[in-house]
Amino acid sequence: MVKNGVSFFLTMTKLQRLSDFQHELPFNVINNNFDTFYEQFLKTELGKIYLATPFLELSRTFNLKDSKKGSSSIFSPKGKIGLMMLKNYYGCSDKKLVELLNGSVFMQYFCDIVIPIDKPLINFKIVSQIRMELSDKLKIRQLQEVLAANWTPFMEDLDKVLVDATCYESEVRFPTNQKLLWECVSWNYKQMVDLCSALRVKLPRTKFLDWSKRYNAYSRKRKKVNKGKVKVTRGLLKLLYKLNGELHKIENHHAFEQTKKYKTQRTIIKKVYQQQLEIFKTGKSVPDRIISISKQYIRPIVRGKEVKQVEFGAKVNKIQINGINFIEHIEYRAFNEGTRLQSSVFCAQNLTKIKTNIIGADAIYATNKNRSFVTANNIKTDFVRKGKPGKHEAQRKVMASEIKKERATRLEGSFGKEKEHYNLKKIKAKTKKSEILWIFFGIHTANALEIGRRMHSQKLSIAA
After folding, report:
1. Is 119 exposed, middle or buried (0-12, 13-18, 19+ CB in 10 A)?
2. What is the CA radius of gyration of the chain?
């Protein structure tokens, strides 16, 4: 049978050993058994995600269309969205994902594609290409409105909202001043060597090779004393200043086309030098501090946790409605989530089209401004009461305790679940936009599975 213009294959209904077939694999076409195939597919976790995902509406919101000019894309708009969800669901590399896709008929059906056995997909870079395409068209608010419109029929207690913030860390090496300076020095020296070779000019004399040995010896030390850090930092600052000057001379005296990436990286390294020089002289941190030249948008976020006091990645303020998470605000700078309670309420009401009556939030949200807001809008909270106890204080304490318990278990538990099981523990994307897309699909793939389970349970109860 052909589904959406695509035919699929189904393995035999009876399990048998491959060695019994004498090099013959008896595959049956789904033309006669598509209903059985689809029924088995929906029983899987992947099938539940498929059932809960409104691919058509998401494709329209992403503005994904099949080009009428030139060769057609391998993946349809639906398939591109499906591929991004598979990336977070399986939590593997792009290359491994393509290998799994080649061998799984369920994954191919999920991505709206059929891959012939004799012509497997080998270009694993197509995953990152699609990621970059979608990241340029990501509209979080509109996409979440589409998802909420499809999911609210399977959600309860729409007037109750839980709010909290978490950090999704990017995959970067732990930044120290010495590591950052050495990265800048290495990049500058490599560019200088390449330019001198291309322009056929003499390479300026520097102490890069000497410092390469000294820095390697320093980095191998298990215990780095403060005296050694000061010496290495001072030397690398002088070397970076020298290399910046030599590159500036080459750029001014020789005509060559500077790419946009080259100009951007040079600007970043100059800013790093100024910041590190100020830190070295004053011993104090600087605002808008760069910690990586490859991901210059990342900023240190002090969280004060027991395991790690500082995290490097995107900070996300999230709202949860009946176990389903939505992004209210995402930023790569540290921000006070306590100021976003009102916007969180408005975001929830925009998604559910129902007035919020109960809200659970951490103590940081319990500011006087937020207390006045919830009181004016008759919203019940789990905030610690200020002033004298009211008439129904005992009932209020019970309700606040239940709200606090649900927030501490259900909402904060979902943070760990997304990070451990939906590829959000370390974001391995290379750009800011693709990292945000990665986080978006990780959160909503987890949501889709939960909604899919509810839809499947509802279907079974109706059938019973």
Report:
1. exposed
2. 28
Predicted TM-score of the model (pTM): 0.90
Residue 286 gets which letter from DSSP? -
Distances (CA, A) of 17 to 21, 22, 33, 102, 441: 8, 10, 22, 21, 38
Domains by residue range for the chain, with CATH? 2-136 (no CATH), 155-172+312-428 (3.30.420), 177-282 (no CATH)
Distance CA 356, CA 346 (A): 9
Q: Which of 84, 49, 81, 88 is nearest to 423 (CA)?
A: 88
User: What does the pLDDT profile of the chain (464 residues) look like in tens digits?
Assistant: 445 555 554 444 466 665 665 555 545 545 567 788 888 898 999 999 999 999 999 999 999 987 767 667 889 999 999 999 999 999 999 999 999 999 899 999 999 998 888 889 999 999 999 999 999 999 999 999 999 999 999 999 999 999 999 999 999 988 899 999 999 999 999 999 999 999 999 999 999 999 999 999 999 998 889 999 999 999 999 999 999 999 999 998 887 888 999 999 999 999 999 999 999 999 998 988 999 999 999 998 887 666 778 889 999 999 999 999 999 999 999 899 999 999 999 999 999 999 999 999 999 999 999 999 999 999 999 998 887 777 777 888 888 888 888 888 899 899 999 999 999 999 999 999 999 999 999 999 999 999 999 999 988 888 87
Q: HSE-up of 163 (CA within 13 Å, CB side)?
A: 31
